[in-house]
């Protein structure tokens, strides 16, 4: 049973949200900074025009015979014309007293020198006011002339609206571009992790080789830990496989010796009761020896399944050779082989694994076939190379057929027949290792059929 892995927030989503959030904040900062800077520039331009207007009026002021004269220049106010027809107000003061203009125009005390500008409200409308003063010297003494010129800010407000809209569009475009780049950057960043995951997922169950492909520096600790884990796991599996193989080998040899002694004793014993006990002993030894041999085969197949030593083989020759070796066993039970095979059925596979699988399938057919019967073996090539073995035995129990390829699984009708329940498992594992499959079925006339496809 596989434990469910607990998942936290998606790393990709988290990184995307951080990048998009940063882009949103940056877009807002750009918007406010550019708008503020544009406001300053626009206001500075209006102040310079107002200052030029005030200076031209002051330049026209002179004192003649003790009388202040100002030849009011038309250009001083015409230069303030705008597309929005902003209203213009002015006031001229002499030593603090209004000489001309709007007496209620807001004013501030200003010393002779450069102009001073500020924003105020006049007649319920925000205006920008620029004031400058100049000291004039006459025969009777000094006098201070100050001039204030005010202008409404409709044109400035319109300009700022246009600038704000442009900056807003620029900020939105920047945000959208940054969002797209965030998704791209996230995919590019997560890509190596996904490729590593795909590489590990596509491996077979026995492929514990270390990850050799280059990975980003940030992933080196993870990949190193993964390689160390797979190395320890591979070592542990190899030890287990070696132990099974060694144990099966060591058990099979003394069992063969015990069987020889048991058969020799059986020939010398005359009591039927003792002979019956010795026959049971020989049968048990045969079953144990067979189980040990199949355990050895299964351990070897497990080890080689992901490291196939492929060769180009003729499946017909392989089957014919195995049949010839098993014919003496078949003759003892009066069983005949009937082989129908194409002359050449080429396959690319591991010869040792294929021999084990085919031998186990034919051996199973021999075990379950009654005396004086025929085992049909067909080797053909259509879309795939296919071997079919059919016997005349009891067949597979239909309700158990799906689970008979599991380890140590045996049908309900196998009682009294020597076996370990590994023969079909071995054939299934070999077929899967060669990208093939094993199909179990029953003959309509009685008997079992196994189709081994590569």
Please tell me about this protein's structure:
- The chain has 454 residues and is α+β, with helices and mostly antiparallel strands.
- The chain has three domains: 15-161, no CATH class; 207-306; 308-454, Histidine kinase-like ATPase, C-terminal domain (Heat Shock Protein 90).
- Helices cover 51% and strands 20% of the residues.
- The chain has eight helices and 14 strands.
- It has helices spanning 11-59, 75-78, 154-201, 220-268, 272-304, 315-332, 351-368, 423-433; strands at 61-64, 67-70, 88-94, 97-101, 116-122, 125-138, 141-152, 311-314, 336-341, 346-349, 374-381, 385-390, 437-442, 448-453.
- A five-stranded antiparallel β-sheet has the order 4-3-7-6-5. Strands 9-11-12-14-13 form a five-stranded mixed β-sheet, covered by helices on one side.
- The longest helix has 49 residues, at 11-59.
- The mean pLDDT is 83.
Overall domain count: 3
Distance between the termini: 30 Å
The succession of helices and strands, N to C, reads HEEHEEEEEHHHEHEEHEEHEE
How many strands appear in the DSSP assignment? Answer: 14
Low-confidence stretches: none
**Radius of gyration over C-alpha positions, nearest whole angstrom:** 51 Å
Structural class: alpha+beta
The residue fraction in helices comes out at 40-55%
Oligomer: single chain
The largest sheet is: 5 strands, antiparallel
Kindly report the spatial arrangement of strands forming the biggest sheet: 4-3-7-6-5
Shape: rod-shaped
Distinct helical segment count: 8
Summed over residues and divided by their number, the pLDDT gives a mean of: 83
Percent strand: 15-25%
């Amino acid at each position: 049973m596989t434990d469910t892995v607990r998942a936290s927030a998606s790393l990709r989503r988290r990184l995307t949200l951080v990048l998009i959030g940063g882009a949103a904040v940056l877009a807002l900062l750009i918007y406010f900074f550019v708008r503020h800077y544009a406001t300053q520039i626009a206001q500075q331009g209006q102040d310079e025009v107002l200052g030029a207007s005030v200076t031209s009026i002051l330049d026209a002021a002179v004192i003649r015979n003790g009388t202040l004269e100002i030849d009011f220049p038309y250009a001083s106010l015409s230069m303030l014309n705008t597309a929005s027809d902003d209203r213009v107000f002015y006031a001229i003061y002499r030593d603090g007293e209004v000489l001309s203009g709007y007496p209620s125009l807001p004013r501030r005390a200003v010393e002779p020198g450069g102009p001073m500008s500020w924003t105020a409200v006049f007649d319920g409308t925000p205006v920008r006011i620029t004031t400058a003063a100049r000291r004039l010297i006459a025969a009777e003494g000094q006098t201070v002339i100050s001039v204030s010129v005010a202008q409404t800010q409709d044109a400035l407000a319109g300009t700022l609206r246009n600038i704000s809209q442009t900056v807003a569009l620029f900020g939105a475009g920047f945000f959208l571009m940054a969002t797209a780049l965030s998704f791209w950057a996230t995919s590019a960043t997560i890509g190596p992790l996904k490729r590593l995951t795909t590489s590990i997922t596509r491996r077979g169950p026995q492929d514990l080789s270390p990850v050799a492909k280059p990975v980003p520096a940030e992933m080196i600790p993870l990949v190193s830990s993964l390689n160390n884990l797979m190395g320890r796991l591979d070592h542990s599996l190899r030890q287990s496989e070696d132990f099974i193989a060694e144990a099966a080998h060591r058990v099979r040899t003394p069992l063969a010796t015990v069987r020889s002694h048991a058969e020799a004793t059986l020939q010398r014993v005359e009591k039927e009761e003792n002979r019956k006990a010795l026959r049971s002993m020989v049968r048990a030894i045969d079953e144990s020896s067979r189980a040990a041999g199949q355990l050895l085969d299964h351990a070897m197949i497990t080890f080689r399944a992901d490291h196939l030593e492929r060769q180009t083989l003729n499946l017909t020759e392989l089957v014919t050779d195995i049949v010839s070796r098993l014919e003496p066993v078949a003759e003892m039970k009066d069983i005949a082989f009937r082989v129908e095979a194409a002359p050449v059925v080429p396959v690319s596979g591991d010869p040792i694994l294929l021999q084990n699988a085919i031998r186990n399938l034919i051996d199973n057919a021999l075990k379950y076939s009654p005396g004086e019967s025929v085992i049909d073996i067909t080797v053909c090539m259509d879309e795939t190379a296919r071997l079919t073995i059919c016997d005349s035995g009891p067949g597979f129990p239909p309700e158990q057929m799906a689970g008979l390829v599991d380890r140590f699984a045996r049908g309900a009708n196998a009682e009294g027949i020597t076996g370990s329940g590994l023969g079909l498992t071995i054939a299934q594992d070999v077929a899967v290792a060669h990208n093939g499959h094993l199909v179990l079925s029953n003959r309509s006339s009685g008997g079992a059929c196994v189709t081994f496809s590569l």
